[in-house]
Design a protein that fits this description.
Number of strands: 13
Distance between the termini: 6 Å
Order of helices and strands: EHEEHEEEEEHEHEHEEE
Number of helices: 5
Shape: globular
Strand content: 25-35%
Largest sheet: 7 strands, mixed
């Protein structure tokens, strides 16, 4: 099973031009089973390069063999036209369930900027069994909001693990209640907007008491002695000031032994972030 996570920066490359076809070409070469994308835009002509097209539709059309799940976390209407911005997941594997979560956005007087943030969860029939694949893009400007989002993700993870432990099918219930088994086993990925030395990172991987499966940084599983490859700050983009890691894969501990590789694809300049790849046996 191969999962790719990528903040595509609405397809805007270092020359300020939008080339969604370049994003699509890179993804096709990587040949993932599940694609997790952040910063997908629709009808946002004011964004650098003019992101006026519906990128959710373009990406879904380019990967016709995949089931698309979209989550525009920001939706603003102008002349009755929705301007959308957010996350997207596409899966070759059959999807059994989809859950979309709006993450906390507490008021922060020290950081009035920002936007709503969300989390997509898809339960997929992977070759090794059902697994939850989740992708997100956390707050950049406000540490207060970002920490609240990390803590809510940890709560949602505990909730899923506890529901998996208690699950009993009940055919007598009406169909909306028949969601089926939703496993604790999970892959979390995306642009977390924190660095490996940050308190947010430590909060996410800190073990919890109770039934939640511990989350493990997949990079550390495969490269424990190697400096982390940067996922942003390459190819001369204005942001960030220096190359660093903002994008991650975290897996539940029961999947740790099945992680065969985690890589950052540093060659492409199609976005200000680099795609990251997770391979699981």
């Amino acid at each position: 099973m191969r999962v790719v996570s990528w903040n595509i920066h609405w397809g805007c490359g270092k020359d300020g031009r939008i080339r969604i076809h370049a994003i699509i070409d890179v993804l096709r070469k990587l040949n993932p089973d599940v694609i997790c994308l952040q910063e997908v835009a629709s009808n946002h002509a004011e964004l650098e390069g003019n992101a006026a097209s519906n990128q959710f539709r373009q990406l879904a059309g380019a990967f016709g063999g995949y089931q698309p799940v979209i989550e525009p976390t920001s939706e603003i209407y102008q002349n009755n036209l929705p301007r959308q911005f957010g996350n997207m997941l596409l899966s070759k594997y059959r999807i059994n369930q989809v859950h979309r979560y709006l993450l906390p956005w507490p008021p922060d007087p020290n950081s009035p900027a920002g936007m709503p943030r969300g989390l997509i969860e898809a339960v997929v029939d992977a070759p090794g069994g059902k697994v939850r694949v989740l992708t997100t893009h956390l707050e950049y400007y406000s540490p207060v909001q970002r920490m609240a989002q990390v803590r809510h993700i940890k709560y949602l993870h505990w909730e899923a693990c506890e529901r998996a432990r208690l699950f009993q099918p009940d055919p007598s219930m009406d169909s909306p209640y028949q969601l089926g088994f939703r496993p604790g086993s999970a892959i979390y990925c995306g642009d977390f907007n924190f660095t490996p030395d940050s308190p947010d990172y430590q909060e996410l991987i800190a073990p919890d008491e109770g039934s939640a499966l511990p989350l493990v940084d997949a990079w550390r599983l495969r490269h424990p002695e190697i400096a982390r490859a940067p996922t942003a700050g390459l190819h001369g983009f204005k942001w960030p000031e220096r190359a660093d890691c903002f994008d991650y894969f975290f897996v539940t501990k029961d999947l740790a032994q099945r992680v065969t590789e985690v890589e950052v694809q540093s060659e492409t300049a199609a976005s200000d972030h680099q795609p990251i790849v997770l391979d699981i046996a």
